[in-house]
Amino acid sequence: MLNQIKGLHHVTSMAADARQNNTFFTDTLGLRRVKKTVNFDSPDVYHLYYGDETGTPGTVMTYFPFPDIGRGRPGTGEVGTTVLSVPVGSLGFWQERLTKKGVTGLKADETFGEKRLEFAGPDGDGFALVEVRDDSRAPWTGNGVGADQAIRGFHSVAMRLRDEGATVELMKFMGYQELDRKDGVTRLIMPDGNDAKFIDLETMPNTNRGLQGAGSVHHVAFAVDNRATQLEVRKALMDTGYQVTPVIDRDYFWAIYFRTPGGVLFEVATNEPGFDRDEDTAHLGEGLMLPQQHKHLRPILAQTLQKLEG
Question: What's the fold here for domain 8-304?
Fold first, then answer.
């Protein structure tokens, strides 16, 4: 069993419109845009990162906004719901705020003894806010949401699977422990990890496989401290039979990827070097930061990429 993984690092999804996506996460949800860059493989497409003040691992939602991409078809083999942590007693505030902002899919419920509010993102993305007591993460309050209500970061992701068996075994190998089972959902926890420590597995044997598009989660990333521990994880996964990519430099972290038995794409990302490697903390997410291989495209991208504000 691995002991290097610390919980969630980030979640990356796809969107159809960059400006709408930026407005939703910074204005509606009150998060900070901590990086504005481009997709390594398609530099004509943004890669936008939203989180707390510094983009702490376990707080960062990232998006590839592909212009005019078709909407995804929800199903199995993917993350169905991304769940965010908010303070106890704040869901009334969020229900009123999201209603006023025209957010759809609002539904208050309770699961595993936690009060939560489900809602949909601009592309039908599945989200929920859950009240968490004693979340140690400092909130970002620069976008008009107070500290008593502000999102702290991830609580969990819920994966939809036709059969959970092999994925449960993988999660346990990665260091997770089974915490509870209820109504076809298995909850796993990362002991002694960061505050983004839960994973829910939803068994849906009669549901078709999802089709990715706008509103779909592309991959979910798990955190390790550094490159040395990442290499340990990579070797252990490969020794177990998983096909894992070489280490890839993503500028703000190093990444490896592999496909899970249930079809979900996993990433293992380092907590280093962080989002302040090319911008001061006070100005994170303001400038267009380009990977080295795409710096020569700046004059073109400055003209062709959609303006996020204004």
Answer: 2,3-Dihydroxybiphenyl 1,2-Dioxygenase; domain 1 (3.10.180)
